[in-house]
Amino acid sequence: MRRRPGSLVPLELSILEAGIELAVRGTPYFHGFLIAKEIKEREDARLLTAHGTLYKALDRMQKAGLLESEWEDPFVAAGEGRPRRRLYRVTAAGETALATARTAESVGAMLRPETARATP
Amino acid sequence: MNAALALSVGMARSWVALYTRGLASEVRDARRSEIDSDLWEQQWLAARLGDPAFGTAIEVLTRMLLGIISDITWRAQAGAPTRAERSIKMSESPYMRGFVTVGIVLALFMIVAGIASIADALLDSDVGSGMAAFGAITVLAGAAVAGGLLSSRRNPLRPPGTGCW
């Protein structure tokens, strides 16, 4: 099924919501595993998002301008003895897309009972 | 590291290495580094929380398996422009195409000759002789040459700083 241009799939909504919540808590940049962990905890899911699903979505969202990313300073990663992280941040366009999607959802939820009543 | 966890991490890394093979180096390295980082973070957090290593191994494996379809579709999208570029580069060099074709013909001849040697040794019920070993080595060498030429044709190496062959 082809989705409408500009519409967001549930995983994209989750990434934007979790990314914005992390920023509010003082962590504006997140890496793939961190966002997967946040989504799992927020949604009380049993599993972390699959690698392929997560990184494909992050790639797509970056190309759409909803996220931006940069590679961490290699010296920081080396200092902590771990691989370098790719750090993402939700852009203003990402925040707008989330707000628009949520508004559309609320309007849709408000209209649904009316539509049901009007239909014989 | 627990053996099950080491195995599942190794499988996840091998899968990434496989589906990113042949991509442009910056795209390939970015995806491999990102998955490496993810795997490291997951193991580090599990160790810090004292989660059982076997459970983490299952979770790593599940994350890999459930993402395979997305990996394949992502690969198909990420690989398309590179393939188009490669076909242009190959068609620009008739000399190189001729070299690859001759090489593949010779490699096929080696494979056929090797198989014939093995068959001959089998028919003579003389598998222990040098003929069978020679045949096997010839088949392997031919297959290696053909494989190398075919993969270099799909992903030609170019001297640094040059636009073509």
Task: Write a structural description.
- The complex is a heterodimer of chains A (120) and B (165).
- By secondary structure, chain A is mainly alpha-helical.
- Chain A is 60% helix and 8% strand.
- Chain A has a two-stranded antiparallel ribbon.
- In chain A, helix 1 crosses helix 2.
- The radius of gyration of chain A is 17 Å and the shape is elongated.
- The model of chain A has no long low-confidence stretch (mean pLDDT 90).
- Chain B has helices at residues 3-19, 25-49, 53-66, 68-91, 94-123, 130-154.
- Chain B is built from six helices and no strands.
- With 165 residues, chain B is mostly helical.
How do the strands and helices of this protein lay out in sequence?
The complex is a heterodimer of chains A (120) and B (165).
Chain A: H1 10-24, H2 32-42, H3 51-63, E1 67-71, H4 74-79, E2 86-90, H5 92-118
Antiparallel strand pairs in A: 1-2
Chain B: H1 3-19, H2 25-49, H3 53-66, H4 68-91, H5 94-123, H6 130-154
Helix pairs in contact in B: 1-2, 1-3, 5-6
Rg from alpha-carbon coordinates of chain B: 22 Å
- The total count of helices of chain A amounts to 5
Mean pLDDT over the residues of chain B: 77
Count the beta strands of chain B: 0
Nearest-integer average pLDDT of chain A: 90
- Spatial gap, N to C terminus of chain A: 29 Å
Distance between the termini of chain B: 45 Å
The shape of chain A is: elongated
- Beta-strand share of residues of chain A: 5-15%
Low-confidence stretches of chain B: 87-92, 153-165
| Main sheet record of chain A | 2 strands, antiparallel
Biggest interface, residues from each chain: A-B, 23 and 29 residues
Range of strand content of chain B: under 5%
How would you characterize the largest beta sheet of chain B? none
**Total number of beta strands of chain A:** 2
| Helix content range of chain A | 55-70%
Q: What order do the strands of the largest sheet of chain A run in, or round the barrel if closed?
A: 1-2
> How many whole angstroms does the radius of gyration of chain A measure?
17 Å
Assign a percent range to the helix content of chain B: over 70%
* Assembly form of the protein: heterodimer
Spell out the helices and strands of chain B N to C. HHHHHH
